[in-house]
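ugh finaly. both done.
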Amino acid sequence: MPKKYAREPPVKKNAVKARGTDLRVSFKNTYNTAKAVRNMTLNDAKAYLNACLERQRCIPMRKYCGSQGRHAQAKEFGLTKGRWPTKSIKVVLGLLENMIANANTKQLDAENLVVSHVQINKAPNGRRRTYRAHGRITPFMSHPCHVEMWAAIKDQGVAKAKPSTSGLSLVKQARSRAQGRLRE
């Protein structure tokens, strides 16, 4: 049975998809990393994540960032909290490279593809245990995640139509005619 995405692109022939399930990487860090590349072109997102790996730019921490420290690089996004979650960056970068390869297979230009959909879901926790003082044992859980993304060709905007009275209701047309008479 084929696995379904939470959302499908509006035009499938103009889009590329990639997903990872049960990835052994922090859910919270991956959430912020993947959301940071949304609405970027594939090549821009790849360049951004490579700059983050080199610590030239940071990943803005918008959610799940309760006790995280502040950094000046986050000013770029209008925030104070930012980090460099290396493992999450590498996972998202791998998905982006997969989408670029899919674009080449479909003969689409990666310059025109924009990351339109990013979704990160929690996966079942990995259970281990750690041994504590006085003979106690504490759970030592990992918090993996599922990631799905797709990129589509950005739609060209439609020009705004001029306002016309034909689209108005009959009552509004009568009122506009009456106001026109009153002004004369």
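ok and the 2nd:
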Amino acid sequence: ITHLYKSLPRVGIDIAHFPEAIMNLLDNAIRAIGGRDGRLILTSAPGQYIDRPGDYVEVTIQDTGGGMSDEIKKGIFRPFSTHSKGGTGLGLVIVQKIIQEHNGEITFNSTEGVGTTFQIRLPVTK
């Protein structure tokens, strides 16, 4: 399911690396849903920072997979911390690094048995 804002402000992205971050999050969401009936929701929207001046574009990737336990959530941005079969534990570390290199931020919410949502906020360029 997509809910994409039609007229977003400009953000500076590296087209060689930013798509890698999005694809990694989408791949994780698809694996979290697995073989069961689930949803993957991709949204984009403009926003305004509360804690500092400026605007951002937010990209949200939400799944109805199994969600994460509190123990897993503690280490998802740590290298080699993986709980998926065949995973290296570097995917989300790379995603975080790419987002930070874009002067952005990545946050997430996850509830076991319900699903996970990642939010990426990228500053608007003037």
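summary for the 2nd one i guess: The chain has a mean pLDDT of 89.
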